[in-house]
Amino acid sequence: MDLQSKEKNKFPRLIKEIRSRRKLTQIALGKLLSPPVTQQSVTQWEHNKYVPDRKYWPQLAELAEMDLGEFYEYIENGLTSKPSSPLEEILDKIKSLDPKELEVVTQATAERWVSLGDVSYTANKQHLALLKRGADVWNRWRQENPAIKPVLSGIDLNLEGCIDLSDYNLEKADLQGVSGNEIKFSRAKLNWADLSGAVLRLANFENATMIGTKLLNAELTEAHFHSTHLQGADLSQANLERATLIATHLMQTNLSGANLTQADLRYSVMSETNLEKAILKNCLVYGTAVWRVRLDQAKESELDTSPRTPTQLEEGIFSDSLELAHILDSISTKPQLYEKLKQRIKDEEQAIEYAQSLVENYGEDQFNGSRIYIAPEGNYHILSSLGDLVVTAPDSSYSLISRDRKGKISSNLRPGDVNNLKALLEFKTKPKASSQPEQKKRNSRPYTGSKG
Length: 452
What we know:
DNA binding, elongated
């Protein structure tokens, strides 16, 4: 029998064996090859109608986990010339077990793992091979196998030649402890991926989506995160020294204990961001939006509010508080804004002072331990309870001003409210004229300010 006849006899079984072992459809197998082949071609190979072109033989050998010598020996002598591995024999036996026998094997396997203790992560060879075939092949495989979680932990991306992972779908991938310098992740999808302990200096994550991504203890010195979406990501204890985070979304991001020394945070958005115990030193913070961030025990110093653009290099105003940095820059460039801020603070302090005096001296005790003051004609209601103070008005859908027991003030004062509260207090403290009928005093308007 000539070699061509042997090839036609051996390839159908080989192709089916590869697909069965790797759980691939005919379409998926065809797309794995380079250049790709159609499902029809794979079907013809399996039905002994055609033999794969020889340019595909090295690829088929790799998928069959053979070197080229073993592959040609197989074509010559058949699969029986390559003895089954002990693992393959075990797997074949497991497939034939009934449920009760399988339960015994499962229990024994679990006990074996316990006896081994902690086992370090290793990358899945098949997943790594697919990663090396480029974004198109990888993303098609991810799309066709959405339930599979890629395991690529511990690999050296430089050593494996995977230096450009731009546009890759790496969602939910296990990338713990990966390493590499100047690796590109531009526009990559890394939502809910785990890169804990990764060492990725000078990595480029520009425009990547990294919602919920884990980067605990990651080494990200001089990494580039321009316009990256990091909402809900965990970068606790990460080293982001000299990292670029311009226009980065950091809403609800965990940066507790992170080192952000000399990081560029310009135009980034921080909302409910956790920066507890973080190091914020010599950072660029011009245009950074800060809303309800947590900064307990954070080390803040020399935060630069200047734009630092090529055409505008004037010295900025430095601050030792991230929350105050943008306010200080605004009021330094707009004196009228500073005056408005001063007036607002003064109005709030006076309103609280007048309201406190009215409710304490002229209010009435309530059954629940609180105290309430209602102005003549009901224009203002002032409630004091367990250290909280709230001023409301029937014609307003929200409180005008409130102060909680911790001293936090929330203000929605309208023009005239402060003067009205002052007039009420002056009216109350004014001596009563004995000749004036009591009923007339109660019905008269006691103050001249706006009703709001």
